[in-house]
């Protein structure tokens, strides 16, 4: 699998979209904030693209929310839509990657260092996106 330099991870949630960016060598993922979602509104693709431009991203890793058995969930359609729109509007690669347990890993990581997640849901979402991207980088 080729390197994934400057890929932006996109973890689509109901209220927020967590973001993470790869370093220039495509080896390390770092949280890159989040985008708020408004209930009942379309995916905020334009805002994700603005962030991608600001971060000089050259591709995308979009979390695919499979169930614990690896089967598609109703939310997978939204992730597929996000990936398709990002690829269509940029011409960059948009890979779908299994995102199972990324939020749980992010929560455990914060708690392991004695941190609190109270009032930090956006930070948790960005860290979950970072876990997602790091898995994709490590799998290449």
Give the oligomeric state.
Answer: single chain
Distance between the termini: 4 Å
From the alpha-carbon coordinates, what is the Rg to the nearest angstrom?
14 Å
Roughly what is the average pLDDT, rounded to an integer? 88
**Approximate helicity band:** 25-40%
Discrete helix count: 4
- Portion in beta strands: 15-25%
Number of strands: 5
CATH architecture assignment: 2-Layer Sandwich
- CATH fold annotation: Nucleotidyltransferase, domain 5
Number of domains: 1
The general outline is globular
Q: What are the segments in which pLDDT stays under 50 over at least 5 consecutive residues?
A: none
Q: Order the strands across the largest sheet as they lie in space.
A: 3-2-1-4-5
Largest sheet: 5 strands, mixed
Q: Tell me, what is the CATH class?
A: Alpha Beta
User: Structural class given helices, strands, pairing?
Assistant: alpha/beta
Q: Please identify which CATH superfamily we are dealing with.
A: YqgF/RNase H-like domain
Summarize the helix and strand pattern as letters: EEEHEHEHH
Descriptors:
alpha/beta, 5-stranded mixed beta sheet
Overview of this protein structure:
- This protein is of the alpha/beta class.
- The chain has one domain: 2-Layer Sandwich (Nucleotidyltransferase, domain 5), CATH 3.30.420.
- Helix content is 39%, strand content 23%.
- The chain has four helices and five strands, in the order E-E-E-H-E-H-E-H-H.
- It has helices at 45-54, 76-90, 102-112, 121-139; strands at 7-12, 16-22, 29-36, 59-64, 94-98.
- It has a five-stranded mixed β-sheet, sandwiched between helices.
- Helix 3 (102-112) crosses helix 4 (121-139).
């Amino acid at each position: 699998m080729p390197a994934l330099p400057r890929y932006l991870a996109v973890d689509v949630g109901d209220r927020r979209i967590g973001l993470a960016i790869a370093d220039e060598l495509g080896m390390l993922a770092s949280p890159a904030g989040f985008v708020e979602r408004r209930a009942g509104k379309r995916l905020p693709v334009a805002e994700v693209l603005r962030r991608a431009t600001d971060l000089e991203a050259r591709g995308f890793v979009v979390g695919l929310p499979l169930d614990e058995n690896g089967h598609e969930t109703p939310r997978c359609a939204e992730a597929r839509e996000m990936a398709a729109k990002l690829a269509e509007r940029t011409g960059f690669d948009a890979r779908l990657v299994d995102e199972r347990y990324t939020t749980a890993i992010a929560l455990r990581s914060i708690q392991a260092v004695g941190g609190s997640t109270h009032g930090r849901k956006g930070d948790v979402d960005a860290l979950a996106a970072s876990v997602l991207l790091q898995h994709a980088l490590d799998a290449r």
